[in-house]
Q: What sequence folds into this?
């Protein structure tokens, strides 16, 4: 299969565990087959690889999420980076061109597009294969997946098919309804629209050339900022007279709010917490290094991270977004391609950060104009380069860098360090990057 995974989200609805860098698909809340925590991104990616080890998978995302994707998967994963937001049609078009022009996929081979963050069973990917097979037929243009609904939901759009067959032509689409309308749609055999669809690249490219001026992937990428914002529904769905739908009767959960997320969790406590016996329907997710004690609560979610602490009635948790949007705060934790960081303290003229660097990875070779930095190595072994001078470092070593000093560290084993920044102006934009005179060995640092 050729698959485009759509990875977006602003990180507001699952605050404080999510932020503008770590959206919900990167939060590790679910167990894999070995009992380790994994994210929705990791879960879906590995499920696809299990269903089709030879699948071409492209993740469509923004610049801010690239480091998190590399951190959770690997550096070789294929990523189509949207230079700026231009709605769903340009993003899907750019990813389709990445498949054909960068990865060499034939324009006649079907492509499946799906979100990166549903919780699904393995049969979901069997249905995706059926979707791809149907889209590969000459008479097919656009093929959708329809989820067999378990209740009359007001949160999803609906697809009304012409028959109850596994594969049917589509009669009409319905937007998110009220409950009475949803019940009426279910009586008509309607399916939830999960935003999963398949097509052949040649079909999408023909439509795209009628709407946009471009030559190939590289040309579209270069002029992406100048493109008109066009939704996929407007550019494709509304103009296509023959659309088919494939039924999916299996497990499918959209975990877009704290309420739906906790319903999908297989344990009530993640992190350090105690829940009293008289609590009912209470979940605690704690990423702080201090205990949480919950007593006498009912229908409540408690979530704690370096970004903040949430205590909410579950039924009210989907209303969090406008409150979080009014918070004016910098990112206090994030996964990076080289590891992760967490802001521990922020004062008027200083910031203290804990960094974890994965073995064989390194920070960029860089300098700052307005701040000094001090690294205290807590654990691990690595190599620092300070103004082109190399030094092997271990737990307990301290390295000081004045403003203007070029510096980096590469981990031989996993390195944990405390970075103290001091200066009148501390900003993420105060950084200039350089090339090292020679690359360090990922194993020895030499």
A:
């Amino acid at each position: 299969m050729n698959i485009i995974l759509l990875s977006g989200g602003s990180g507001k609805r699952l605050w404080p565990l999510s932020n503008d860098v770590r959206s919900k698909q990167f939060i590790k809340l679910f167990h894999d087959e070995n009992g380790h925590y994994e994210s929705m991104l990791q879960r879906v990616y590995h499920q696809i690889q299990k269903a089709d080890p030879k699948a071409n998978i492209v993740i469509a995302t923004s610049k801010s999420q690239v480091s998190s994707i590399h951190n959770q998967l690997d550096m070789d994963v294929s990523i189509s980076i949207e230079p700026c937001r231009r709605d769903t049609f340009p993003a899907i078009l750019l990813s389709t061109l990445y498949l054909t022009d960068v990865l060499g996929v034939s324009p006649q081979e079907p492509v499946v597009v799906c979100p990166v963050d549903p919780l699904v069973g393995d049969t979901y990917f069997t249905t995706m294969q059926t979707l791809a097979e149907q889209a590969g037929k000459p008479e097919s243009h656009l093929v959708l997946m329809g989820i067999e609904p378990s209740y009359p939901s007001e949160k999803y759009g609906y697809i009304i098919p012409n028959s109850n067959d596994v594969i049917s032509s589509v009669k009409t689409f319905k937007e998110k309804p009220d409950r009475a309308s949803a019940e009426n749609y279910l009586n008509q055999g309607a399916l939830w629209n999960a935003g999963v669809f398949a097509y052949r690249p040649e079909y999408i490219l023909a439509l795209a050339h009628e709407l946009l001026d471009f030559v190939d992937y590289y040309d579209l990428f270069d002029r992406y900022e100048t493109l008109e914002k066009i939704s996929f529904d407007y550019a494709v769905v509304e103009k296509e007279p023959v659309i088919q739908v494939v039924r999916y009767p299996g497990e499918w959960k959209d975990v877009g709010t704290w309420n739906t997320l906790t319903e999908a969790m297989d344990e009530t406590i993640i992190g350090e917490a105690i829940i009293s016996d008289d609590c009912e329907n209470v979940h605690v997710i704690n990423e702080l290094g201090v205990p949480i004690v919950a007593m006498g609560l009912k229908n409540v979610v408690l979530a704690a991270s370096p970004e903040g602490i949430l205590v909410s009635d579950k039924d009210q948790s989907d209303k969090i977004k406008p409150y979080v949007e009014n918070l004016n705060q910098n990112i206090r934790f994030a996964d990076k391609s080289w590891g992760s960081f967490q802001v521990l303290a922020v004062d008027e003229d200083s910031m203290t950060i804990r960094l974890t660097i994965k073995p064989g990875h390194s920070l960029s070779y860089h300098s700052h104009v307005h701040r000094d930095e001090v690294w205290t190595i807590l654990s691990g072994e690595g190599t620092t380069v300070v103004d082109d001078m190399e030094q092997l470092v271990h737990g307990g070593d301290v390295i000081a860098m004045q403003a203007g000093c070029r510096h980096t560290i590469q981990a031989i084993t996993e390195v944990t360090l405390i970075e103290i920044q001091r200066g009148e102006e501390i900003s993420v934009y105060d950084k200039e990057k350089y090339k090292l005179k020679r690359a360090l060995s990922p194993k020895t640092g030499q």
Notes: The two ends are 42 Å apart (CA to CA). DSSP finds ten helices and 30 strands in the chain. The first helix runs from residue 40 to 51. The longest strand covers residues 191-199.
